[in-house]
Task: inverse folding
C-alpha cells in the first residue's frame, strides 16, 4: 500500500487532480443516496463540497497551492458555464491557452513556480564577480532570476530552459535586454547536458528531484554546484542550506557535486 501511494504521489499533477475530483464526486453521490434529506441543500453547498473535498484530497496527494485553488474553483466554473451560453470556440481556445501555459508541466510534473527577490540575491552571492562562468536555470519560468543575475554578472553566461511555450516566450521577451549573456531555450530540461555548466539551478517540485539528482551526478563536473530551491534531492545531503523569507520552508539547497575540482575556478558556497 505505501508503494502504491508513492507511485500515485509521483504521477502527473493533472492526473491526481482529476482523480480527486472523481473520488469526491462519488463520495457526494453516495452521501446523497444514504441521506436523502441532503438533496434539499442549496446548490452552492454541493459545489463547495465538491471543490473543497477535491482540494483537500489534492493536498493529501501532494498537489501544490495553485492546484488546490484550481480544484476549489473548478466546480463553480463548470456550474456557471452550464447556465450560460458559450461560444463553441471557447473550449478549443481555452485548451490551447492551458497547453501553452502549463503544457510543459503536464509532462515534467513541474508546476509554474516563481521565486522571490531574496532567492535571486542569494543566487547572486554564489556567483563571484569578474569570473567567466556558465549557469543554467532548469524550468526557468518567466525568467526573473536570469535577468536579475545577467544584469549584475555581465561576464557570466546564462541559459534558461522552459518547456511551456507561452511561458518561454514571455521569458524570452523579458530577457531580451540581457541577450548578450543570457538566452532562453524552449524544450525539456532532461535534454540539457549539465556537464558544461558551473552552476545548475532548479525550482521544480518534489516529483522530478530523484531523477534530477541522478542526472546531475552522471553529468556535472566535480566541484560544480547544483542549487535546488526548496525541494531536496533524496539520498543527498546539501553542503549548505540558505533559508529564504516568504513561503514556509523556502530555502536554497546547495550541493557541491563530487568534491572540489582544482582545475576550474568555481563559485564557493556562502560561509
Result:
Amino acid at each position: 500500500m505505501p508503494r502504491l501511494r508513492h507511485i500515485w504521489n509521483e504521477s502527473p499533477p493533472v492526473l491526481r487532480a482529476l482523480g480527486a475530483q472523481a473520488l469526491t464526486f462519488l463520495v457526494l453521490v453516495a452521501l446523497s443516496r444514504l441521506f436523502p434529506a441532503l438533496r434539499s441543500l442549496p446548490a452552492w453547498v454541493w459545489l463547495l463540497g465538491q471543490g473543497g473535498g477535491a482540494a483537500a484530497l489534492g493536498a493529501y496527494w501532494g498537489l501544490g497551492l495553485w492546484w488546490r485553488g484550481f480544484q476549489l474553483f473548478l466546480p463553480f466554473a463548470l456550474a456557471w458555464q452550464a447556465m450560460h451560453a458559450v461560444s463553441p470556440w471557447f473550449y478549443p481556445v481555452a485548451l490551447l491557452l492551458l497547453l501553452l501555459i502549463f503544457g510543459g508541466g503536464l509532462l515534467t510534473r513541474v508546476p509554474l513556480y516563481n521565486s522571490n527577490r531574496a532567492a535571486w540575491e542569494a543566487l547572486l552571492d554564489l556567483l563571484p564577480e569578474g569570473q567567466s562562468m556558465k549557469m543554467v536555470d532548469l524550468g526557468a519560468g518567466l525568467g526573473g532570476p536570469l535577468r536579475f543575475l545577467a544584469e549584475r554578472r555581465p561576464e557570466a553566461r546564462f541559459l534558461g530552459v522552459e518547456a511551456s511555450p507561452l511561458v518561454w516566450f514571455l521569458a524570452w521577451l523579458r530577457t531580451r535586454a540581457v541577450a548578450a549573456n543570457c538566452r532562453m531555450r524552449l524544450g525539456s530540461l532532461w535534454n540539457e547536458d549539465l556537464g558544461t555548466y558551473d552552476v545548475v539551478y532548479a525550482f521544480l517540485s518534489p516529483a522530478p528531484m530523484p531523477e534530477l539528482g541522478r542526472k546531475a551526478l552522471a553529468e556535472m563536473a566535480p566541484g560544480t554546484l547544483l542549487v535546488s530551491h526548496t525541494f531536496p534531492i533524496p539520498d543527498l545531503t546539501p553542503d549548505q542550506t540558505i533559508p529564504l523569507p516568504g513561503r514556509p520552508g523556502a530555502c536554497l539547497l546547495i550541493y557541491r557535486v563530487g568534491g572540489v575540482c582544482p582545475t576550474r575556478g568555481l563559485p564557493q558556497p556562502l560561509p
Summary: Residues 15 and 270 are 40 Å apart (CA to CA). The chain has two domains: 2-85, 117-256. DSSP finds nine helices and seven strands in the chain. Residues 2-85 form one domain.
